[in-house]
Task: structure prediction
Amino acid sequence: MGGDDGVSLMIPCPHCQQRPAAEFHYGGPVRERPEPDAATDEWIAYTYDQPNRRAVQWEWWFHRAACREWFLVRRDTRTNQVLESSLPGQSETSGEAEGADE
Amino acid sequence: MSNSTDAVIFTFDGRSITARPGQTIAGALHEAGVHVLSRSFKYHRPRGLFCATGRCPNCLCTVDGDPNVRTCVTEATQGATVRSQNAWPSLKFDFLSILDRLHRFMPVGFYYRVMHKPRFLWPFFESIVRRIAGLGRVDRESGGSRRYDRQTLHSDVVVIGGGWAGMHAAIEASRRGRDVTLVEERATLGGYLQDDPALQVELGDRFESTIRSVLDDPRIRVLLRSNAFGCYEDRLVAVQSGDRMIRLRAGGVVIATGGWEQPLVFPGNDRPGVMLASGVQRMMWQDDCQFFGDAVVVTDNPGGYLVAHALAAVGTNIVAVVDHNATPATDPLGLQDVVRTGQTLYEVRGRRHVNAAVVGPLEGPSSAGESIACRWVIEAVGFTTASGLLAQAGCRLVYDESRDLFRADQLVEGYRAAGSVNGTFDVDACAREGRLAGEVAAAGTAGGAIELSPAMTLSPQRRPPEGKKAFVCLCEDVTEQDLFDAVAEGFANIETLKRYSTVCMGPCQGKMCQAGSIAACARANGATISETGRTTARPPDQPVSLGVLAGRAPHRHLLRRTALHDWHTEAGAVFMDSGAWKRPESYGDPAAEYQAVRDGVGLIDVSTLGKLELRGSDVAEFLEFVYPNRFAKLPLGKVRYGVLCDEAGIIIDDGTIARLQEDRWFLTTTSGNAEGVDSWFRWWLATRPDWDIRLTNISGATAAMNLAGPLCREVLGRVCDADLSTDSVPYLAARNMEVAGVPAIVLRIGFVGELGYEIHVPTHLAEHVWRELMSAGAAEGIRPFGVEAQRRLRLDKQHLLAGQDTDALSNPLDAGLPWIVKLDKPDFVGRQALKRASGREPGQQLVGFRLEGTQVPPEPSLVLVDGRLEGRVTSARYSPVAGATVGLAWVPAELAENGCEVSIQIDGQLVKAVVQREPFYDPDGVRLRS
Result:
């Protein structure tokens, strides 16, 4: 359903500009996929453990209700402040979190 | 005020009451001599008007079935039925008022200790508590006709509060070209000034002209009788306006919500007859009420003197003006005989109404108190700020000692504060702050610190109350002693103190009691008010009805129809819901439809399938990566079955992948999963911007139909010029061809186990193609067939339905598709998980089974082995070609071989089933490949 219920945060979609967060699907923080021959423990962590950091991080968002494009958002999870957004491949959007306290 | 000049007559507990047009219910009751309006929550003490401005719980009544209406701010309407609450059998003689005498047995938090030790007592106490808790009763019969609305508005500047500061902010922002929304909770603009004629006189016609400017300004949208109850992220303001919720998105917000007059805490402070000065003023000016008899006014500022004069002028006998200050706060002007300086209220006496006030020196012992007979006790001892919304927005609040209130000192971006909410009470200063706030909000600049206007002098001296019944919280009947006891029990932090004692948790939500509770907590801890702090402010800032939050019911449901819907309807289709889609379950005779496909030819609408087009030179590599089986070398003109897995190796969808040209691919997904697969693919493509791939979701633009049955080649041949021989179009071929003159993609696949063609055409031409096929097949007796027949047909072949036969734990190895997992590929999505799974002992397996007898197990049913639950049936139907009931089930790995026996529970009985791994019909697929 989405659209107008329960969410007030605005997300700056690179194509559609500021739209309410309910129009989007959150895709989790940016992470590096392990090499195919990496250790099992690494694969288990990648598949099942979602990092949950108090930090500024790059994360994936999908504009489900409009342009249906995946893009990246830099957000401070401590204050829920959205700092910037970027198309994939455009800026330095690594999986490293800034100022993380785990 | 209403325009009518006729008197309004309503009933209060059956008694007929006359009101002047525009008068509030409580005002009319006051004039009729009704001074007890309710019974308090816990002790059922008689309560009367106190704040008279809609901020305390004392005047709550049920009006025309609506519970908890604040009658002091609600206009009386003709014929209304007003009932008192929380009293039985009557307001005058309330049975539960004995609780007032039993207060010794009901200290703060007593229910935590008494009512559930031993535990079996709790259900008994719970039933009692449920019956007597709460104030008003919800009328469950009448709710159905209410209509709750939603509205979303956007505004450059939102001003919350239509008082002097708010109006100036709105005018200034509009002057600078911004569009403004002004939210005001009362029915008229002007805020506090409306109740203060002295101030209005001082302002001359500026008062009226400012209101006029706001109302006449085309750029200012004024929302009256509207309550802003929450400030959310990115400046979303939630407003309740009658039965409508308005979501107001603001560029900048000005909070000019003013403040609330605060009560004095002393024994007997909740008696009818004790009132706040601002409430008395409102009743005098807005409701034309008078207060006959003797009155004592307690004050620490000039405001008390002004009220005393105003009352004296209309017939009240002021017997004392009790001033906390050592010298009178202002010129007594004729009241000097009754002024007592350096004194305060010790106690108020009386039960149903005040009959005496005990006053004495501020620092004196209780024995120094002198009793003064009176009927009214009017308090004017200062204001607190209505800063809840500022706190919600994240602005930092500090305790301002000189003003004895909490106010914001650091604002967050996009918010400004102006007027009394800053502790500013001088009218010109309020206007100045309002203009500045409007200017800043219009410019869209950031928050920052607040510049304050100079404070007016106050004496915040209060005498700590002695005695038991000094109420801090009127809503929840929490006394100052209760708070001290709670702190002594260890609930010393303001947050835990609030939750344990329930102070501030009633209808007023702290308007009357937060400052008092913080002061009591500070005193009990020997701390300062700054150190004690405030509880976290959260929405809603005002009580909001659940109906307004919920909006209109029923909610909208998405409904999807295919292009052939009308044709199906005319053909007598019985529809079913498949997700959001309406699909024909059958056309009245699923058995006959089934038979037509087995013996002749049938046609089914499969437009609900997801369809994706992929173009580019890297598509082959992408598909090779995202599917567990091989696609990189799929020849042109071929279609292949594929199963999508996630990184955990779990099946998320199945479908077909066709390579129409070197760089042009056509994919199908299960019905209703187009968006899911589309977003899954898009994410992988987003991680590889270097790939040359363009993905288009053509599900809606493309309709699809499956022509199936041993005679279908002839039928298709009549509307298609292409060579359809099995050499030209073999099983698993994918072709572009014209069908009925329409460009189509034709896939020769066989979900139903017969010779068949899945024909994909543009949606707007679907009906034409369908009709042509139906008439081309007339000679063969072509029948349309629905989902039910399709289910039976595919079950004969043991073709699984992703999502029905598989779930969130199913991987392809266990689901009977081990051949689809090509572990020799260097990398694909889910490879690691599937590699580990293939090395482990297998868990349950998906297998086919045959049942003895004629019962068909419902989907799902339990599979038991030796009385233990060991699996489940996911699909089952009677199969004519197998001559038995057949199905698919998950069974333990050691029983997943032909001939093994399991039991299936049907209607509480166990029925024997035999595992059969080969399809029940045409196991070698001869019919498919014909």
